[in-house]
Amino acid sequence: MKVISKFIIILLLLIIVSLSYLSFFGIETDRFNSQILNKIKNIDKNIEVELKKIRLVLDPFSLKLNVKTVGSKIKKQNKVIEIENIKTQISLRSIFNNKFSIENLEISTKSLEIKNLIYFLRSFKNSPELFILENAIKKGYLIADIKLEFDSNGKIRDNYEIEGFIKNARLSILKKYNLKNLDLIFEYQKNNLLISDITFSLNNLNFLSEKILLKKKNDNFLV
User: Fold this and answer.
1) Quick one: 18 exposed, middle or buried, by C-beta within 10 A (0-12, 13-18, 19+)?
2) How far apart are the C-alpha atoms of 55 and 65, rounded to whole Å?
3) pLDDT tens by residue, 140-156
């Protein structure tokens, strides 16, 4: 009886120590890389993603694994976007039930040249607006955080969110309007774009604005 009691106590201690280690430090693995890759390929099947090992940290209160990978790259047609990190959560219940699923993805970019980013986006959708914008932008940098949610079929929901900032951008429009030193913070949700802390110089005249809100309604934008 004493042997059984000692065994149970040791087993419980091992479980507690293991859970504590997973909750504070986590572990590195590449076990879930393929699932993350599949979710990203739902955006475009021609995307190539370079993933490093991911870190798993247990959230014992929500019974989920917090998953994070750092220093990834997204490639398409020799165009590369460098990613600061990719994060998601995995339900322990879905793992135990053999029904692995990822409900969300959070992607944070490194500092990107806006012109290169637009060139990359045009490989997905080569719209006239993007073509004009690519030719208008002369320089500038952007950092963005993108939040995506997936439905039960693995498709991206339309409630995605994008936020970040643009720094030191310069545009030339019709060779008549030269916009320089553009800095701003942006937040995009469905049909709403909020731009704040805007400063720029237009033909050597300085402008600033605390906040501009654009709302899309019936294919029109309200400012």
Assistant:
1) exposed
2) 10
3) 999 989 888 887 776 77
